[in-house]
Amino acid sequence: MNKVLIGVGPLSADEVVSVARLGVTVELALDAQEEIKQSRKVIEDLADDVTPHYGVSTGFGALATRHIPTELRAQLQRSLVRSHAAGSGAEVEREVVRALMLLRLSTLATGRTGVRLETAQAYADLLNAGITPVVREYGSLGCSGDLAPLAHCALAVMGEGEVRDAEGNLKDAGEALAAAGLTPVVLKEKEGLALINGTDGMLGQLVLAAHDLRRLLATADITAAMSVEAQLGTDAVFAADLQALRPHPGQAASAANLRAVLAGSEIVASHRDPANCTRVQDAYSLRCTPQVHGAARDTLAHCETVADRELASAVDNPVVTRDGRVESNGNFHGAPVACVLDFLAISVADIASVAERRTDRMLDVSRSHGLNAFLADDPGVDSGHMIAQYTQAAIVSELKRLAAPASVDSIPSSAMQEDHVSMGWSAARKLRRAVDGLTRVLAIELLTAARALDLRAPLAPAPATEAVRAGLRELVEGPGTDRYLAPEIEAAVQYVADGRALAAAESVTGRLH
Questions:
Q1: 276 pLDDT exceeds 70?
Q2: Per the UniProt record, which residue ranges are transmembrane (predicted)?
């Protein structure tokens, strides 16, 4: 993808990821330019109207009863942005800020906000120059949209505040714009409000998280399959006809992945004969993998549906309708996004929890079916992966706390004008941390299962799990006496995070669900 064309229609999730994460450039389509010009004319025609119009000739929030005279309306917009750029805390990640700016530009491109074409173009120019406004962790209540984060971006377009340039250097916004050959925007009627009144921050983080979770859920099926092999589990429970008795799509997809990844395993075949295996059934953490992983898949599918609807939305207040009305509305409320962000955090915690249980079974000599205690070379002298599981457990405990919903909270603001808020930004921030935690939990399961498969030699794992194990062995040595473990965990984390583990399995199976 060389360039993303931003028209009146919605962006795709892949386009958001490409611009936010990969730095792909953007261009305003001709249809969007025309819509922007037409809606701007509506706002300009209201400039001298004696009837109050919210955001054009009035104050904001609880101050909306104040009528603003014509000569103060440009100052009104500048003051709005400056006062709302009130974030605090650590800097928000570059990809999140780029997603936020892109999604605000997408709403501007619908022609429903009433901004000038040069103001919308300024956002495209900022993205293309690689200039990223400094946005702080705290400041959004998720209603009226992500006000403070968006205000920091609008401030940068005005040539004020702090930004990071394309090389990541911290600079004054005016200096960075000048170095890129860009001119600060002087905001006019309605524009300040249009730049800050949207759910773009929480939506951008939802899209990025969903993209990462698609890969992680497929990887979770792979690490689970490796654990099944390592613990001499059976693949019979993953049969398609058994799964069809409970026809959840995610469950079927997960089971199909497990069958594909385990196909041809000598380890699994070695104990299919009842004469060689006295166990009637495996523990839940192995046997119920499709049910647990499938529930998360179905949750993700629902969340992606909500994200697609939001990507097709024009979120602002007031909006300029196609027939020329300027109307107040409540579409800026982040409830639809906040709820699914919380929903995903619950599923992330559940996937990590079952992965940690599978890992723990491989380390317990009483449950691992012949493996060394903690997979140690010389148990007692060596501790093997004992503390790697502690790290997993600490992360899972954190993920359970992060699964507590943010969207059930509401702290009234703006003198009770904004008396119910979504806390969607907070839900998005904790989901990002949860996705990182899940990545680490799955990496430790993979690292542990790979060592267990080595210890099952001369029995060979399935070709797909062998490909994953072999790829890891290019980064991390196999079994032996205890080594400095943290760098090996980090190598496994990167192997999972950048998709190499998934690609290794798919080099054998073809594309997994």
A1: no
A2: none
